[in-house]
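Technical annex, item 7. During the second reporting period the consortium partners agreed on a shared format for inverse folding records so that results from different sites could be compared directly. Each record opens with the tokenized structure and is followed by the designed sequence. A conforming record, contributed by the partner at site C, is shown below for reference.
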């Protein structure tokens, strides 16, 4: 009888120990398996990206050599020449232009910001902006404010234009890899 009682107590202790110590943590096995799968997937993604590094460097060199290089001292003149050429081709009249500003937050490009006030019909303004967008210096509009002129026959536009010019060719790749390290 004593043996049966001892075995019953031991079995009861094992059941209570399982209930307290093991069952609450049983659901964590699934979480651990999910974390292991996610970690392996991340490792595969990193390894794939590292394997593509030579291809990416070739593409980077190709893109670095694309486009035209404009010397920093000629960038202001080039931007204004582009604006004037596009305005003459589309019939938009330039009322005023402020001095340009330079921004240098990018490794590969210098940005020139130019504020221009122009007058033209809606079709002329659209053609003007389209012509600016097709320029190799990647001119784009940052800000555009439209209002009718006093006779209400044309539109007056205050435009903030941004042109991106390539930094010195050949040094961009070295600067990019140095900053990545």
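Designed sequence (site C submission):
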């Amino acid at each position: 009888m004593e043996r049966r009682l001892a075995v019953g107590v031991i079995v009861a202790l094992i059941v209570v120990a399982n209930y307290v110590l093991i069952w609450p943590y049983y659901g964590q096995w699934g979480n651990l398996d999910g974390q292991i799968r996610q970690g392996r997937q991340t490792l595969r993604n990193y390894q794939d990206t590292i394997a593509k590094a030579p291809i990416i460097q070739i593409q980077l060199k190709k893109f670095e050599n694309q486009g035209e290089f404009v010397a920093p001292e000629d960038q202001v003149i080039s931007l204004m020449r582009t604006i004037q050429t596009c305005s003459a081709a589309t019939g938009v009249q330039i009322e005023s232009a402020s001095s340009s500003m330079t921004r240098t937050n990018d490794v590969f490009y210098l940005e020139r910001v130019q504020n221009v006030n122009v007058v033209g019909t809606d079709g002329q303004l659209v053609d003007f902006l389209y012509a600016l967008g097709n320029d190799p210096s990647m001119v784009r509009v940052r800000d555009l404010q439209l209002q009718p002129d006093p006779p209400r026959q044309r539109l007056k536009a205050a435009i903030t234009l941004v042109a991106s010019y390539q930094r010195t060719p050949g040094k961009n790749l070295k600067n990019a890899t140095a900053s990545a390290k």
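DSSP finds six helices and five strands in the chain. The radius of gyration is 33 Å. All partners now use this format for quarterly exchanges.
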